[in-house]
Amino acid sequence: MKKYWSFFRIRFIRGLQYRTAALSGMVTQFVWGSMEILLFRAFYQASPESFPMTFEALSTYVWLQQAFLALYMVWFWESELFNSVATGDVAYELCRPVRLYDMWFVRGLAVRLSKAVLRCMPILIFSWFLPAPYGLTLPGDVKIWAITILSMTLGLLLIVAFNMIIYMSVFYTVSPQGIKLFVSSLADLLSGSVIPIPFLPDHVRTIVEFLPFASAQNVPFRIFAGDITGPDLTISILKQTFWLFAFILIGRYLEKRALKRVVIQGG
C-alpha cells in the first residue's frame, strides 16, 4: 500500500499547483450556480406545488453540485491515459511493480480530490451566506452529515471505477473519441447533472434511479438537502455499494483480458 499512497500524494500535490485554473473554475461555477437557481426560481414562483423538491432543497443541491463538480463530473477524462494506450507508452507503466488498474484508480482519485479541495470551500462558504431560499441549507442532524460523507465517498469511488472501465476499453478500440462523447453525454443526463433526477417523469425516473449513474452525485446531495430520508436512504446507500463493486469487478476483468494479449507498437 505504501507505493500507492506515495503515488497518490505525488498526483495530489501536483494537482494543487493549478491555482489559476481553480480560480477561474470557481468564478464559472459561482455564475453558473446562480443562473441555474434563478432560472428554477422563475418556474417555482409560477407553480411551486408542481415540483417534487422544495426550493430550499433544490438550492442546496445546486450549490453542492457546483462545489464538488470535480468529484463527480463523468466527462472529466485524463488524456494522458488514453494516449498512453494509443501510443504504446503504457508499456512503461506495465514495467512498474504495481498493478495497472490500481495505479490508475489511485491516480483518478488524487486528481479529482486535488481539484475539489481548491474549489469547494469558497463556493460552500459563499452559498451559505446567501439569503434563504437561495443559499445552502445545512442539516441539523449529525447523522445526516455522517451519512452524506459516506455517500459522497461511495459516489466518488463509483465514478472513478466507471472511468476505469472506459480507460480499459481503449485496449479494445482504435480511438477513444466515440465512447468518450457517448458516455459523457449519457452520464450527464442520467446522473442528475443537467436536471435533478426527481424532476424527470415518473416512469423515466423509476428506470434512471436504478441505473448506476444515479448513485453518484444524486444520492449524497439529496441526502444532505433532506430530499432522501427513511427507507429510501438505506436503499440508496445499498445501490451505491452494489454498483461500486460491480464496476470494480468489470474494470479488473477488462484489464485482465486486455493484458493477456495486448500488442504494443506491433510487438
Automatic annotation (TrEMBL):
The chain crosses the membrane at residues 21-40, 60-77, 116-136, 142-167, 179-200, 237-254. It comes from the Bacteria. The keyword Membrane applies. Coiled coil: none annotated. The keyword Cell inner membrane does not apply. Keywords: Membrane, Transmembrane, Transmembrane helix. PANTHER family: INTEGRAL MEMBRANE PROTEIN, SLR1174 PROTEIN-RELATED. This is ABC transporter permease. It comes from Lacrimispora defluvii.
